[in-house]
Hints:
Elements: H1 4-17, E1 26-34, H2 37-49, E2 53-59, E3 66-74, H3 78-94, E4 99-107
Antiparallel strand pairs: 1-3, 1-4, 2-3
Amino acid sequence: MISLADLESMFNNMRAKTKWNVDSNLLWGYFFFDPHAEKLRVIATELQKSGYRFVNLYPSDDKTTYVLHVEKVETHTPKTLYQRNQELEQLAEKHDIASYDGMDVGPALDAKK
């Protein structure tokens, strides 16, 4: 789990090194790993019902596990992102998913809303 302090540093870094408006909508990608693709399909469906967009489900480079990538345009603070990560970690535990691996972020494009 990524600590709140790490997320605060991440937000400070984004403010310093990007031209993004960190206090508005950004495109957040979230990643889950499991050896069983079907388990990831189940949570993908659940996440889509909650407004997430399915991006991809693909085998890892070493073919030992699958990666689920979903995304959502959202506005976060370090605290709300910390809460989101906790929710997704709990979802992974509920469905016996091997790992909620965290997130990435980029600018929100209208086409991806």
